[in-house]
Amino acid sequence: MLNVYLSGEIHTDWREQIIEGAGGLDLSFTGPVTNHAASDDCGVLILGTEPDKFWHDRKGAQINAIRTRKGIEDADVVVVRFGDQYKQWNAAFDAGYAAALGKSLIILHGPDHAHALKEVDAAALAVASEPAQVVAILRYVLTGAPD
Known about the structure:
Strand content: 15-25%
Number of strands: 5
Radius of gyration: 16 Å
Structural class: alpha/beta
Largest sheet: 5 strands, parallel
Order of helices and strands: EHEHHEHEHEH
């Protein structure tokens, strides 16, 4: 079984596409909390309110980092998706962390990000533009069949 961590943008259904497409393969998927409000507010909901937005965000980021670090460290493969709508600095950080740990890294983004992400792409073992390509890579890794 391969443990796959799905990191990156949370505004589209790319995770569901990969999980559904990989049905029947010996894979286990994990990832960050994708409920934006829950992710943003977890720190103050657990540790108490903060009048300053900076500390509100910091508490949430640090608690989310516990989950993210554990997920990336336990993963055999890390998939990082960069979406079109927002700048995902956290996704870039996750990709760098996974690369530093020597994880097998698959980057997923559209052609508009090719230049901006050239260093991130260079650290990856594969760069895909569609979730179906990620599924095909995972299938190949597990079965040796390229299609």
